[in-house]
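Is zinc ion placement plausible here? Inputs below.
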Amino acid sequence: MALKIYDTLRRDKVTFEPRDPKHVRMYVCGPTVYDYAHIGNARPVVVFDVLYRLLKHIYEPQGAKITYVRNITDVDDKIIAASKETGEPIDAITRRTTDAFHADMKALGVLEPDAEPKATEHIAEMIALVKELLAKGHAYEAPGDAKGHVLFSVSSMADYGRLSRLDREALVAGARVEVAPYKKDPADFVLWKPSTPEQPGWKSPWGRGRPGWHIECSAMSEKFLGKSFDIHGGGQDLIFPHHENEIAQSTCVRGKDAFAKYWMHNGYLMAEGEKMSKSLGNFYTVHDLLREFPGEVIRFLLLKTHYRQPLDFTKRGLVSARAELDRFYTAVRIAKQNAEPCDVDPPEEIVIELGDDLDTPMAIRRLHDIASDLNNATAPETKIDRKRVAELAGKLVAGGRLLGLIQQDPEEWRRWKPEGIDGLTNAEIESLIERRAAARKAKDFKRADHIRDELLKKGIVLEDSAGNTTWRRQ
Ligand SMILES: [Zn+2]
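Reply from A.M.:
I modeled the complex. Tokens:
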């Protein structure tokens, strides 16, 4: 089937044709790890997860390999600032927030990418790329006091600005560059900059320093996907300057047709009708939302709006998203009382909707249609056709799978309760489980059993397997 996607570069919906039909390659800009991911950070991760699932569905049966790369930016001025503010060492911040990001995205049902390179592990590749840009005359070292800075020279590139299509004035204003007298042109951007002794830094031909943000993605995408690949994705806010500058860096050294063939961007996200901000109380982190709602509800709400549209994320929306998911799970649960769902391929009508520039709202409508058919097939006083029930329930689950939805056991889904309903936060439960593990290690089984029993009294069930303990609220 033909997959159509909206390409930001061409400003048009186009038919996707991979450069190599045997290897489909996608790069999406990942998080800068200095704080919990907010819901706006989660949107591209969930959107491109659906695209990843769809690419696998379409191309794997044709014998193609799909490689999806999503980086981690673990060297950045925001991380340095966070460390300065709290006193927490940089590597502790990046490790902790990377772990939190992974846990949050897992709770949102996001598949792991095929590679997740960290910027700090690819400094050599970045330095090599900067050297090539210098050698080709697309970059220059700042003189005098500004020594140690290497800048990209936008005037060295005839068609700089072709992704964002901004005029010269907007390019300069939008670059939000601080007054930097060492820049030949105000729109020039940093490839490498010097670090003070207390800042993270690496040895380079220009002295001890660190990379600019844009060069990270140019270097890491090339390392994991090659000089040319298919799709580059991210939030709309990255079009300029980040993606514009990635194009500048990569095509100036690898050729005009190199780098990403298609550019996809998701729309902006607001919360409760306004731009998210901590002072307005509408700054939702995934971590906090997960105490109140199952991750699948958050994912579902993100997918109910088409990815290119602006999305107003509200608590009311979460409540109705939960009710919609209840409808799906109830349909599957009742079906299961009659027949086990068949293991089938995702229904064609859902593949077609998603293949039309990832039309998730329409795909969800198709899921509702299937759920209606299933409800009719299991309605009271209906003569149950077990085969049909099994097929419809299978279709619903398989269709949900392409969207990363309806994959839980319906009973498990029913049991979900918000954090704290039993008087314990998840962190408190986990700390009790750690204490129980320590007691067991010390062969204090009486104490270990006591902790387990006390948790059970509050409706928290521990399950031990292969040396690991998982838990759930009853
Ligand atoms: Zn990037």
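Short version: The chain has 16 helices and 14 strands.
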